[in-house]
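Hi C.,

You asked whether I'd gotten around to modeling the 316-residue construct. I have! Everything is below, sequence then structure, no commentary in between.
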Amino acid sequence: MARASLVPASLRYLDQVARSGSIQKAAKELNVAASAIDRQILLLEQDLDVELFERLPRGMRLTAAGDALVTLSRRWRADERRVASEIKQLQGVDQGHVRLVAMDSHANGFLPHFIERLAREQPRISLEVEVASPDDALSALLAGSADVAAIFNLMPRRDIHVHWSAELPFGCVVAPDHALAKAASVSLQEVVAHPIALQSKALMIRRYLDARYGWLFADPHKALVTNSLQLVKQLARGGSYVAFTSELDAAPEITAGSLVFLPVRDKGAEPQTVSVAIDAKRPLSRIGRIVIDMLTDEIMSSLGHARAAGQHAHIE
């Protein structure tokens, strides 16, 4: 039998309407009458003397007051789940639920290995994984809708605790038979002599390149632009293209030998970072500690395998 929530139904309904965009859709998701949801929201608005939603022809949109209340609701629900997990732990049971937010590039890298290992070694821990941009991952941590984040280029903040972090040298990948493949490092001038598979501005690496090396894009005919990291890597594997990405993003291909990572040696080529972080204001549960330690171990292992393969390729 499902445990009843300690969070008031009105706040749970409010949250679901915000997620679904309409009372009718929220009613289907919750299996609750739409009239009951509407009544609870109207009562909240009367009690607070403020509108929580803009009623639009095609749905409901949160007002600033509604957004603040939804944030409170999600924090309460996160705290409720954490306390329930801690009670289980006091009973000697490693059982609980952890919400992880990670980058899209992780989905074809260390994430599947991490998920399989967690299921194998800790079958009573359930995991929820959301893929997001770095900005949205940070927002999810601060809003309490995520417990742990694996995130790129996280800037120091007092309200975020970084459990682990590693530098990712700025570089590019090429196929083993590419003209640049045997080099220990490359300059950007050497790279732009070849076709480039470039990630769109929606992705972090492109924003990094735009900010520091905008001249790379002076000739639009020299680069193919896409928002798909998988397509970028596939084009690089084809042998003609150079692709800017990190060792972690291309770790499976580097480890398998289908791509070679080349660090860029230009002065001022700053490394990116990957971090595993939590909200500094919320205590980490024992279950959270198990997950965060295993996640860190999997990222370190993925990087370690890629770097070992890269050293072996250059020795040959």
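If it helps when you're writing up: The two ends are 61 Å apart (CA to CA).

Thanks,
B.
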